[in-house]
Amino acid sequence: MDLVWYVSYGSNLCAARFACYLGGGRPLGAARDYPGCADPTPPRRAVPVWLPGGIYFALRSRVWGGGMAFYDPALPGRVAARGYLITAAQFADVVDQEMHRAPGPGLDLAPVLRHGRDTIGPGRYETLLRVGECDGRPLLTFTAPWTAADVEHTRPTVAYLDTLATGLRETYHWEPAQVDAYLAQFLR
């Protein structure tokens, strides 16, 4: 079993929401059920991860109704994220679910592990990034193939921001004012 760190910078910062990607179900505030991974085993560990760059909100989520978070490593700043230690097969199933597909046959991670980036399709979360390493295992995330400057930014819904806020409090033990200040920098 090959383990990787899935790094979430968006709503999956919230452990209860991410649990629905692994085991199936409907997260609080979401408009859809998730089928879950073929292997519903919970993460072996979760750790705070800081990424260079920034996030922005764009498009319109079919789950939340407003803008979705995307990571752009070329933006100035730092992104508060959460790494979940899961299997490579679970990571592939999470990518499929983010693209509203049923978990499928798997994903070849060799290109992203070798080159640090692999665009597996044109979809909003089909660009895989290797953003570092933790305890000898790769840190992997996904984002859009475009940059923050290439797309119109859209406001996220309150429910989406509340889920991000919950994840930030869980991961970093921040007070509400710290969470609000962190998120406000990306909402300008």
Summarize this entry quickly.
With 188 residues, this protein is of the alpha+beta class. It has five helices and eight strands, in the order βαββββααβββαα.
Describe the structure.
The chain has 188 residues and is an alpha+beta fold. Helices cover 27% and strands 27% of the residues. A hairpin with a 7-residue loop joins strand 6 and strand 7. Helix 4 packs across helix 5. The radius of gyration is 15 Å and the shape is globular.
The N- to C-terminal Cα distance equals: 43 Å
- Spans where pLDDT lies below 50 across 5 or more residues: none
Number of strands: 8
Query: What is the string of SSEs from the N terminus onward?
Result: EHEEEEHHEEEHH
**Structural shape:** globular
User: What Rg, in angstroms, do the CA atoms define?
Assistant: 15 Å
Q: Portion of residues in helices? A: 25-40%
Overall average residue pLDDT: 94
Strand content: 25-35%
Category by helix and strand content:
alpha+beta
Largest sheet: 6 strands, mixed
Strand order of the largest sheet: 2-5-1-8-7-6
